[in-house]
DNA sequence: CTTGACCTTCCCGTGACTGGAACCCCTATC
DNA sequence: GATAGGGGTTCCAGTCACGGGAAGGTCAAG
């Protein structure tokens, strides 16, 4: 199938598929006219990649997952390790965003938000670490 | 003061400060030898920027906040609007990460994680949208 | 024969920096 | 005066994962 069908099958944009070939994630064969010719296996790989990326795995993680997927003798422990590391990273991001949300929410709450120029958000942003203004 | 002192005062790397000058966030004067010469006001602005960036505001948001901060007649409503939009974005990110975390956590939980090759994580990642394998 | 949809490669731009090369300036020491 | 070091400066390239768009080849239909 041509790239557009592979795109439709996997849900990835054609540009992204070309990029994935460029960095060696997939290797579709070429037709005589130079067009990429995707097999069902290629389309399946692309779907796999789309899902893994959708779960937030970095490209290099996806490469590793793909290799594990293609390796019939892989140990599930390898996969689990990768997934757990990723889970930890997600937890860190959530924690950071939550803390950040709390700070900002506090600032917003204290801002009267009318026409008066006195604004605690800006005042706080301007506050020096040592307390000097 | 020289760039290193400005960096120490604001907590930003010197490279970042040069970048901020390049994109017009700050405009330190130059000494005769061509060195940047940061005033106290410059250092204060850099601290402001460091804090705003630390709260996750994009550079262009920081530019707007800085302008509001420098505008003595600004309305706090403007600032609040910016901050609330940012808060919404943070909430969206947290929601997305939380959903993603749930999916991945479920996969990890179901993975026995031993030497057996059978791994639900990879199986799920490979699953086609229509259910075909 | 032309139109239009599709494909190809190539290059530039994104955001917010970071690293490094090549070179200038200033002070201190021998 | 030479040298060493620790500043500073500019410019270029790279990051991550693509997206936009130009210039041009290919194919099926009318």
What kind of oligomer do you see?
A: homodimer
What count of helical segments of chain A does DSSP give? 6
The neighbouring-strand order within the major sheet of chain A is 1-2
> Using CB atoms under 8 Å apart, which protein chain pair has the greatest interface?
A-B, 54 and 54 residues
Radius of gyration of chain A using CA atoms only: 24 Å
Percent helix of chain A: 55-70%
Strand-and-helix sequence of chain A, N→C? HHEEHHHH
Mean pLDDT of chain A: 85
Subcellular location (chains A, B): Cytoplasm
GO molecular function (chains A, B): copper ion binding; DNA binding; DNA-binding transcription factor activity
Protein name (chains A, B): Transcriptional regulator
Domain HTH merR-type (chains A, B): 1-68
